[in-house]
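Hey team,

Filing this mostly as a record. A colleague (T.K.) asked me to run one chain through the structure pipeline before their review meeting, and I want the input and output archived in the tracker in case anyone asks later how it was produced. No errors, nothing strange. Just documentation.

Input sequence:
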Amino acid sequence: MKWPRRNTPPVGAPEVEPKWRAPRVTVRGAHTGRTLDGAVPDGDPSTAWDRRRSEYKLVSPLNAKRFTVVVVGTGLAGAGAAAALGELGFKVHAFTYHDSPRRAHSVAAQGGINAARARKVDGDSQRRFVVDTVKGGDFRARESEAYRLAQESVRVIDHMSAIGAPFAREYGGMLATRSFGGVQVSRTYYTRGQTGQQLQIAGAQALQRQVKLGTVDLHDRAEMLDLIMDDGVCRGVVVRDLVSGQVWAQPAHAVILATGGYGSVYFHSTLAVNSNATAVWRAARQGAFLSHASFVQFHPTALPISTHWQSKNILMSESLRNDGRIWVPKKPGDDRAPGDIPEAERDYYLERKYPSFGNLSPRDISSRAAKEQIDSGHGVGPLANSVYLDFSDALAAHGRETIAARYGNLFDMYAHATGEDPYTVPMRIAPGAHFTMGGLWSDYDQMTSIPGLFVGGEASWAYHGANRLGANSLLSACVDGWFTLPFSVPNYLAGHLGERLPGAGDACVRDAVARVTTRTSALLAVKGKLASSHFHRELGEIMYRGVGVERTAEGLAAAIDDIHDLRHRFWREVRVPGEGRQLNQALEKAGRVADFLELAELMAVDALDRQESCGAHFRSEFQDGGEARRDDQRWAFASAWETRGASGATHDLQFTRHAEPLAFASVPLATRSYR
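Output structure:
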């Protein structure tokens, strides 16, 4: 069977009235688009991946070397895809703006990686994994992809262990597991509090092996700034050498974007300061749809901001919630030291509100509950902007040695960041912008709305719906990189054998390079007085205020206007010193902030358009006693936004919302309950 490659009818085909229509867009300046087909195999979602994979077309080993594939990003998804495709014999160009692929932000994930291997006698299974993932995402993701995630999770653990990830083990040698939020079983594999770092080291080593073998060309300190587009098809990328400033094009038969999420749009986020959205947003500006733009996870165990001038949040692993108990004083404004507050005057609010899951309630619920306590005057710490995460009971029950073996490096990190000893006083935590469930829309084969452009990892919208369960991020990146894209990309390439790559003299390459140089010149020509970080910080304040943990129609409308005004001020007042053809970090930052300002407007539009509460998208107007109220009759679909409008200071962006209906055959739609 030939699966559809583009979500448009064949040329000359009669228009067919769709059986299903999404609600019309009512946001000023935005428009309603068409219904999308995600090309999900018909039938039982539990067998969809097996059936699809067995029908994929193959590329023979002798022909693989005739194809060039670009992979942008060298985190778990990018490193895995580049290494796997290189192993298959394809000619791969891997790009990273870091000085080494192992510096990719996947290192920051601490707590663990999920897998439905069911090695413990606790009732876990692949089916239970799917139910937890679909329910955890509040029924706003494809059910069939949750099955793929569960199925491949078994292979991921064995594979990453085989290539060097030092997973923790039980006394008898079995790999150890622990629990994470949103589940009642133990399915999270870990390497103390360094899981992302150890997986990233293993993936980077596999990538470097292919570099040594000559199948992968690694380009470090190179930032992708645009796509090469030829008659609507992606034919490569344009990059800027961050050391020399040289702009150059790399043609390809297929491109994979694995560049991470866009949570740093909030300025204060758990992401690294250099994390950005440019690759994804440049693709969106060339016609790739961006789905679920406003679905942003606020991590409940970030460290609170201690000063306005702090450059980022610090993440503390969710795994700490296995043994730590979260509480606030029952009395508002109580500023006594935590040790002076007796048990009877403490509110363990998650255990009170959600007794079945307690401190392991899902992240969206836990963050919302923490914000509720802080806003009502029960916050603790010098700025009253946090809650306690207390290990005194666990230390008394298990001893310091056991707790140190589980979380020692996390405790050390907390002590270094705050000057407080979590072995003797409770940690202070608060919600912080963290993971973006939204990303580039893609079909079941992970190809975007642009033929030839694929996406993986957090840059994609797949798997997580409106809320990601803890420890599913490392898993989804590994599944994409090692076990999905190495099948689906060759399937696409098999139909393009013998195609010539565009050269430097072709119009599509010249146009792409010209777009990059024109934009660079425009940034350098503003000659304002304010650094781009000034605008980024102001944007973060707007986003936390209007598109944060809790949203309202009034606040979102105000945020859209504020972002629009800020974007125009940026293009009048930003100052970028230096030149383009040299090392220029101010230019890098300015380009990324310019993209954030456009993306942020879409995020606010998407949040205002979606008139329901689901997962991390909590609209105050749509709730039942503080719990999210979904509207499955009208909003059980994925929003996929198309963005139009010229780049620069004087344009208004035009957004069109396309929609892919979401059906649930195996996990029936139900109201989430963790009580």
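Quick notes for T.K.: The longest helix spans residues 585-609. The domain at 300-431 is CATH 3.90.700.10 (Flavocytochrome C3; Chain A, domain 1).
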